[in-house]
């Protein structure tokens, strides 16, 4: 098949090389923009489901999925306070600015 395509491309060696690149690019574009998006829903690549187990992940250290809660003496804000502005991207002024 490839030799048949090569023999039927026009304009000598230069035309055959350019024609071959155009054919390969066209096939790649067809796959990238038409075929792959249509079969994506049938592929397992987007099935990212992470499930935790009580007492740690299987094969991992015990308590690997345990949430660590900081103590009250920590410098972190309380859990119900958002430590950043929800209105703008400008950070809160500090004494060093």
Beta percentage is under 5%
* Low-confidence runs: none
Euclidean distance between termini CA atoms: 70 Å
**Gyration radius, to the nearest Å?**
29 Å
Give the overall form: elongated
Biggest sheet character: none
Secondary structure tally: strands: 0
Helix-strand sequence:
HH
* Overall SS class: mainly alpha
How many helical elements? 2
* Average of pLDDT: 74
Helix % is: 25-40%
Explain how this protein is built:
The protein has a domain at 16-42. The protein has two helices and no strands. It has helices at residues 2-8, 12-39. The chain is mainly α. 36% of the residues lie in helices and 0% in strands.
Keywords, please?
single chain; 97 residues; mainly alpha; 2 helices; 36% helix; elongated
Quick take:
The chain has 97 residues and is mainly alpha-helical. The protein has helices at 2-8, 12-39.
Write the layout of secondary structure elements.
Layout: H1 2-8, H2 12-39
